[in-house]
Amino acid sequence: MKDEPRAHPFRDSHMDAETAKHLPDTPQTRSPAYRLAYADTDFMCREELRPVRLQLELLKPQMLLDERGINSTVVMFGGARIPEPSKKDTARTKTLAQLSAYYDEAREFARRITEKSLSTYGKEYVVVTGGGPGVMEAGNRGADDAGGASIGLNIVLPHEQAPNPYVTPELSFNFHYFAIRKMHFLMRAKAIAVFPGGFGTLDELFESLTLIQTQRMDPIPILLFGKEFWQTIVNWEALADAGTISAEDLDLFRFVDTAEEAIAAMEGWAQP
Q1: Cys bridge to 217: 68, 147, 211, 239, which one at CB 3.0-4.6 A?
Q2: Which residues, listed in sequence order, are joined to residue 152 by a DSSP beta bridge?
């Protein structure tokens, strides 16, 4: 974060935190009660402090993105297990190997979106992914191919992981709360591209559709890459026929198979 000029005469919090590290060693200074509250990890992780932690996770990425001047994003969701085509032999199933073609489509889509972003000096249409492997890596990689920045919104999971190497380091964030992470995916979104994936991808897709359907979010292009995949795993028409969604809800998204089709759909997007 950039350092703002101090507008008050009080000691800086960083200064006091550093000073507190060099206090005399006494029973009083060793007591947890004596720690500065904002520098006390045990205190900050208490149950009662959850509202504060939620606020901090909302504020930190918000402030850094604002400082960067990023006004809008294009979100890319998709499976972490989809390999790049050159590594499709490592896929755990034949279907995943076949879906590796969408790695290249995601990379190309992100490259073209980032070229559009660069025409705005990187302020608009910045690619954002979940920061992980698979389709997420392809998205950040495509942005890197174009010479632009991209965002990664990672989350702490039980198994060891790290952001993919193509996320812009200054725009690589880590989250504890899924809910706050989802907010950051959509707060600046001008379009959402959804590639084949699993539970996480489905969760992100249906939450986005629900927000638009219930008018809690303005309509934006939602592009489902892989018509055959999406029509196989979800019987969209059955939902409408059953009356659990309206027929017009099927117009909230478009099926595409290539980056070129997706760009054309975005540029010609019109809600009913």
Answers
A1: 211
A2: 129, 172
Q: What is the Cα–Cα distance from 25 to 116, expressed in whole angstroms?
A: 58
CB 201 within 8 A of CB 80: no
pLDDT at 270: 74
- For residue 202, the SS3 value is helix
Residue pair 29/23 in contact by the 8 Å Cβ criterion: yes
Q: Rounded to whole angstroms, how far apart are CA atoms 97 and 120? A: 36
Q: Is 188 in contact with 127 (CB distance < 8 Å)?
A: no
Nearest to 59 by CA among 127, 135, 1, 116: 1
3-state secondary structure 123-149: CCCEEEECCCCCHHHHHHHHHHHCCCC
Sheet holding 172-175, edge to edge: 172-175, 151-155, 126-129, 73-77, 189-194, 222-225, 254-256
Instruction: Tokens 């900050």: give the residue.
Output: 44
As a whole number of Å, the end-to-end CA separation of the chain is 42
Q: Is the pLDDT at 246 greater than 50, yes or no?
A: yes
Burial class for 56, CB neighbours closer than 10 Å (0-12, 13-18, 19+): middle
pLDDT tens-digit map of 18-71? 998 999 999 999 999 999 999 999 999 999 999 999 999 999 999 999 999 999
pLDDT at position 190: 97
Entry pTM: 0.92
Give pLDDT, residue 268: 92
Residue-wise pLDDT tens digits, 207-233: 999 999 999 999 999 999 999 999 999
